[in-house]
Amino acid sequence: MPSWPLNQWYVAAYSQEVGDDLLGRTICDEPLVMYRTSDGEVVALADRCVHRRFPLSMSNRVDDMIVCGYHGFTYDKGGQCVAAPAQKRIPRTARVPSFVVHELDGFVWVWIGDADRADTALIPRAPWLDDPRYTTVRGMEPLKARYGLLVDNLLDLSHETYLHGGYIGTPEVAETPITTEVDEEANVVYVSRHMADAECPSLYSKSTGIEGRITRWQDIEYHPPCLYLLHSRIAPVGVLPPADGPDDQAFHVEVAYAITPETEHSTHDFWMVARDFALDDQEISTFLAENNRTVVLQDVTALDVLEVVVEGEKDSYQELSINIDTGGLAARRLLKKLVDEGNAPAPQTTATTDAPAVPAPTSGDPVPTA
Amino acid sequence: MLGGTSVYRIVWKLNTDVLIGYCWCGESHEDIDPIAMWEWLLAHPDTHPTGGAR
């Protein structure tokens, strides 16, 4: 069984990445090929020709079909083979699995699990990423580490003080106690760190223009397994949200990560920074993009090292957890719960039939994974 | 803050290393070990009368 939950939505790409060209990307050990049809619909198929496994992402797009670059097997957007070389009869089993996808908030989400269990209402939201009242910079870094290490990293921001000093880390981050909450029914972890009087890190002093110390709030909202949100509020010391009306004396930065497993030992680290100020200032956009990427790469370097350490350690190794890990421990537990739930059979919704919800694959058919 | 009816909350007691955990039913528990704290919280609903939020 994989270490990630099945029957869940995962971010496969930014919407802007998927266009006319064939995009190959492995999501949760599933090699996918994605493209956008002439109608604007995003398609995700298994990235292996059913004939001799040649990657379709390295093949050719003809209209809304893919023609395998090896022997010419041609697939429609549903994954059905519609043409095979030098013969009229197309084998009944000539099709590749198609995956359920849904575009929301600038992401292409893919359902990893049983297609009949896919429900778009379950996709967690990050609306500011696709909202004209915010300006967003974004990127994606490949991580040679298991996704759980990135979850650990992001749920405990005290590491900012040590790993990201000079960028977003100041002494107060590690010194300030946190409050951790878990909603058992909604499957959300919330970690708050409110710093009343803190040094302003350079990332924020240069982008907001605030001089002097700040009131800095960090409120993490993790929707396992994939979406991590950090609501960051920056204001001059003592400036709190008003009891009524907009919080317009503060700067708001919405940091988001999509944590998508690629394999058991690698992860797609999608990162975004949305802000509600200086919306048209390209200089600030460039500054935030460059500096935030530097911060992300500091994490990537550390987590790539940790992956080697964890993979090579003895089974008996016992790690230590302290108060700062309360949120990370909560996230691990929710992930484990989701893994167990994802592996369980689908709940029966009708009692009137014994027939399976999905026809069993015929012998010789590829078994669709979604 | 989360506003659901099944929210566990752990706060850090001011100027100490002590954690205070609150079950969604309102009962609380103090501990200095986050793992032990989660074990208490997760075991706690088992003692609730039938008809709780879970």
Overview of the molecule:
The complex is a heterodimer of chains A (370) and B (54). Helix content of chain A is 20%, strand content 31%. Chain A contains six helices and 17 strands. In chain A, the strands form four sheets. Chain A has a seven-stranded antiparallel beta sheet with strand order 11-17-16-15-14-13-12. The longest helix of chain A has 31 residues, at 282-312. Chain A starts with 7 loop residues before the first strand and ends in a 27-residue tail after the last helix. Residues 351-370 of chain A have low confidence and may be disordered. With 54 residues, chain B is α+β, with helices and mostly antiparallel strands. Chain B has one domain. Chain B contains one helix and three strands, in the order E-E-E-H. Chain B has a three-stranded antiparallel beta sheet with strand order 1-2-3, covered by helices on one side. In chain B, a hairpin with a 6-residue loop joins strand 1 and strand 2 (19-22). Chain B starts with 6 loop residues before the first strand and ends in an 11-residue tail after the last helix. Mean pLDDT of chain B is 83; it is low at 50-54. The chains are: A alpha+beta (370), B alpha+beta (54). Chain A binds chain B through residues 177-186, 188, 190, 192, 321-323, 325-326, 329-330, 333, and chain B through 1-2, 4-12, 14, 17, 19, 24, 32-35, 37-38, 42, 53-54. Strand 12 of chain A pairs antiparallel with strand 1 of chain B, so a sheet runs across the interface.
What is shown here, in short?
The complex is a heterodimer of chains A (370) and B (54). With 370 residues, chain A is an alpha+beta fold. Chain A is built from six helices and 17 strands.
The end-to-end span of chain A amounts to 16 Å
CATH C-level category of the largest domain in chain A: Alpha Beta
Helix content of chain B: 10-25%
Q: Report the C-alpha radius of gyration of chain B, rounded.
A: 12 Å
SS strand fraction of chain A = 25-35%
